[in-house]
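Can anyone check this?
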Amino acid sequence: MQHFPIFVAMQGARVLLSGGGAAALAKLRLLMKTPARIEVYAKSPAPEIIGWARQGRLHLNKRDLQPGDITAATLVYAADEDDAMDARTEAFARAAGVLVNVVDNLAASAFITPAIVDRAPVTVAIGTEGAAPVLARKIKATLEETLPISTRTLATTAAALREQAEELPHGEPRRSFWAEWFDHKGPQAIKNGTDPKTALNSLLETHLNQQSLTNRVTLAWTGSDDPDLLVMKTRRALDQADVVVHDADIAPQILELARREADFLTLHNTATVPPLPQLLAQQAKGGRHVLYLSSQPCNDTLATAIRMAGADVTLIPGLSGEPQFQQRGQA
């Protein structure tokens, strides 16, 4: 990963752009979606830029950018479409310690602007390290079809109620509530013309009244280091689990699919203290969802022992890979 993705806070930020042509217009259309103070420096700005300045959407300076202008800037864009002018702007920004993007010049840029799917407050950024912008646009088009405009309403409504939702226990109960909102109740409310805030408050009340916590353990296995050979249920469990207990020979690329917030516990052998069923049940206490990912098939004996230790169990069959693993008895 040559470019680390971040989201820059734009409230109160100063963003400077040198240039007044087509490249400048493309960047400004994106930047004007933010609350940043946008300053444009161009001796001959395009009519659109002049119009935006008159509307108060940006601040126009009909001159070249100077070193003193960059003081306290957050970001700088070099968009003059002239190698010498862009290099000049880049030098000013780097000397001031300000991040600079030189349009269409990856090597000279300290940061790049990704392709963006805008469903604010939901924003999806797609980067290809500057190597395949056409692919980025293709992915963007696919995501725009997947995320309807109503995503904006769902997210805005959720943000307004986030504090109240924290009354739900952390982990699975809270995730279950939000999953039901975004997957079912929210879209249904919008489709039926119901007030989203009313629908979300009603859903929260239902979940608060059903706070009985279930200790859950999911047993899964994979006989391959290839993430593409994971069955879909195991992928989903990796994405949802609060705790991932795994054999030491599970490949790192498999574990990369787990939630970043999850706790990880590596088993170097199954002769654990306490025994594996008790260990998994203990990890699930408090309503946590525990995934045990084994490099060999899990059996019903293990599942029965975990249930006796006090947790609900889901057993997911896996797909074998090369090399094949021999099944071991787990209890």
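Reply from J.R.: I decoded it. The first helix runs from residue 22 to 31.
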